[in-house]
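Annotated sample (chain length 91).
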Amino acid sequence: MAETLSDDEITEGLPEHWERDGDEIVRTYEFDSYLAGVGFAAGAGGVAQDAFHHPELTIGYEEVEVRLTSHEAGGITEQDLDLAARFDDLL
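Output written by the structure step:
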C-alpha cells in the first residue's frame, strides 16, 4: 500500500492548476462544449484504469471536475500526484 505524503510533499508535488481539498486534490477542467468534456472524461477513465487508480469525475456543462485521493492509504499519495499529471497531459 502507498504511503500518504506530508503536507510539504503535497505542496511541492501538486501540479499547476490543482488544489488541495482536505485529503483530496482537485481540478476543474473547462471545455468549449459538453461533448468535449465527456470525451476528456472518457479518456481520463481509460488512463485511470491503466493506472488502476480511480478518481471521482463530475461532468458538468463545459467542465469536468476531477478529485483524487488514495482511499486505502487514507489520504494523498504519490499515485494521486502522478495521475493528476497524466490527466493534464491528456488535456
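Annotation: Strands lie at 19-21, 24-30, 56-60, 63-68.
Annotation: Residues 34-51 form the longest helix (18 residues).
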